[in-house]
Amino acid sequence: MSDDVLITPKQYDIIADIQQQTLEKLVTNAPVVEILNSLCLLAESILPNAVASIMMIDASDGLLSVMCAPSIPTVGHKALANLQPGPCGGSCGNAVFHNEAQYVQNTFEDDRWKNLRHVAYDFNICACWSMPISNEHQEAIGSFALSSFEHRTPALFHKKLLETCSTIVSIVLKRELREKRLVLLSTALNNASEGVVITDKNNHIVEVNPAFEKIYGFSESDVLGKNPKILSSGIQSSLFYQQLWHELISKDQWRGEIINKHQNGELVSQWMSITVIRDEHGVIQNYLSIISDLTELKSAQKQVVEMAFYDSITQLHNKTYLEQQILANEQNYSLLLLNINNFSYINTAYGFNVGDKILTAIAKTLVNNFSPHETFRLNSDEFGLLFEGEINIAEQIEVIQQYFYKTLIQVDDISLHIAFTYGAAHGKEHLLSNCTAALKKAKSLGKNRYHVFDVKTELVNDSIREGFIASNNLLHSALELDQFTPYFQGIYDNKNQIIEKFEVLARIVKGDEVISPFHFLATAKLSGLLPEITRVILDKSFKIMSNNDYTFSVNITEDDLSQNYLLAYLAEKTAQYKIQPQRVILEILEGVSATGKKNHIKQLNELKANGYLLAIDDFGTEYSNFERILELDIDYLKIDAKYIKNIDINDKSYEITRAITFFAHNANIPCVAEFVHNEPVQAVVKALGIDYSQGYYFSEPSPFPTTPKL
């Protein structure tokens, strides 16, 4: 089975994380608009260059309008207002009309977008995938959609994402509807769906309404003249009723949750509001009780809690429960994470259905054979064992290893030996994050290894953490305020003795302050912002270079290749600014080309085939894969600055540079020496026959590609 039809464990984790984050908001009674806006933004974060929207049918006229779409401007909401569901009504109109998912790859041509073609053109909606939102009768009442600014078709992962988001919207709306109903039942005494009980001053029942009979199964004749105690379940203590009567007499009102008993003996959860009715002299005449049945709401709340706090496959508590309900107590614990070795291969070999059964079998084994405080499933192939206090981790791991070494996990007709890699931590604060860091280190040591987090040596220094936060804030502010600016540094042709190329360098410009990547590059990578910065720099540098004929190079990161957007984005920008691809050099780090990731190599070859030039940047900093360089048909090789800056006085730097230059010349690949900062360095560079020199000796970075007099 090919990769494009499988959902990876990591992708399942992403979907589960979206579900958990949204349901957590639901559990904490966040406003519906906040919950749905958050869901849209989470979905958008999974599919770059796209926006999410929720459209709902107006019951009065059957037309669709936008309910939530935080990233779509108001004018977009208006353009989509009062949409008629139908075969030409766009992806959402079709999803509701047919009550099935619609995946439109090209809105400019697909007949399903015939009536909305102007919207597609006006807002550059190139593709749109829509999933119907259903009510309890499985009728389509709206749609959840992802609209893309580029033509594309959804993978199985994206379809699962749409299905999950649609289901969550349905749950949220059902919950909102039930809550509105509860409010109505508790305030409108004449509403027939609420039970009404009126007693006299001696608390004998004198009146009930028809809803009362439905709630309790008692007829009016069964209860008139009797004390409401006949409804008591015995669940509440005598102290509960003493406090109820004390508050009722002192405040003339009591409200609260109470559990009574149906005529058939079943327990009934209720919200009861009791009001004292007094005459004009303040003497008690009656008691009015308004009864709202909470059984259905309680069931819905239980379902939401289970979805938020339980793993659906193993029925163990999940990561959210561990963080919110256990570790929030700040008690001393020992936490042990167990990561299943090679679980992705098990899924591939046997399929996800069998994989889920194996996970369930492992969960039962961990629960039944060891004695932790509790067992959790934290990620797709990761379990957690929590122990109270500090235990001997090494001994516990030895016990687990020996058990699984001797015991096969059996599912259907399959028997497997299961092994783990372990991470552990002790303490109160940051226990899960510390344990995760320990597991990561254990994985770096190899399979079947373990590592225990050492607070004294491994905690991140506070100043480092504060620096990261400051740098992260700087990045987000710079993107929001459009402060990223391309700077240009000339590349000197040693043969023709002119500057004929430029490298584009990213800078943040705040007023008179120019901030170099040294202050934000590492944070940008950790924050996942590198592709967004690359897009900004590409767009701005292309615009500037459209006014001249220089060749120029732009840095491309592994993060850019992982998002697989470069080919389409570069095609868009070269067309927009009328720049020939042959003028654009894409500088990639040596490590990217040496990873051997098939998708990255494929992309780079596609870019090369479309006319873009390729350069290896900082060559010599990692293990060099010379064959891979030839395989990629590299146009330029840039020798790392650490070998050039002292080449005139450092014999080792000289020999390494000489070897690289020899290889490049034999492979007919032009070389660029970086960090040429003075005449002695340049003299050695020229003597070695290096084709180009780049550095402050020839050109300082500036906002425009200028060629200084040399």
Largest sheet geometry: 8 strands, mixed, barrel
**For the CA atoms, what is the radius of gyration?**
33 Å
For the record, what is the CATH homologous superfamily label of the largest domain?
Answer: EAL domain
Uncertain segments are: none
Strand content of the residues, in percent? 15-25%
| Spatial strand sequence of the major β-sheet | 18-19-21-22-23-24-25-26
> What's the CATH C level of the largest domain?
Alpha Beta
Described by the principal axes of the CA atoms, the overall outline is elongated
**β-strand number:** 26
Q: What distance separates the N and C termini?
A: 60 Å
Number of helices: 27
CATH topology of the largest domain: TIM Barrel
Structural class determined from secondary elements: alpha+beta
Which range best describes the helical content: under 10%, 10-25%, 25-40%, 40-55%, 55-70% or over 70%?
Answer: 40-55%
Topology of helices and strands:
Blueprint: H1 9-27, H2 32-46, E1 50-57, E2 64-68, H3 74-79, H4 90-98, E3 102-104, H5 117-122, E4 127-134, E5 140-148, H6 156-187, E6 195-200, E7 205-208, H7 210-216, H8 220-223, H9 238-251, E8 253-261, E9 267-278, E10 284-293, H10 295-309, H11 319-326, E11 333-340, H12 343-350, H13 352-369, E12 374-379, E13 382-388, H14 393-406, E14 409-411, E15 414-416, E16 420-427, H15 431-445, E17 450-452, H16 455-458, H17 462-480, E18 484-493, E19 498-510, E20 513-515, H18 521-527, H19 530-545, E21 551-556, H20 558-563, H21 566-577, E22 584-589, H22 590-594, H23 598-609, E23 613-619, H24 626-631, E24 636-639, H25 641-644, H26 651-666, E25 671-674, H27 679-687, E26 692-694
Parallel strand pairs: 16-17, 19-21, 21-22, 22-23, 23-24, 24-25, 25-26
Antiparallel strand pairs: 1-2, 1-5, 3-4, 4-5, 6-7, 6-10, 8-9, 9-10, 11-13, 11-16, 12-13, 14-15, 18-19, 18-26, 19-20
Helix pairs in contact: 1-2, 1-6, 1-10, 2-6, 6-10, 12-13, 19-21
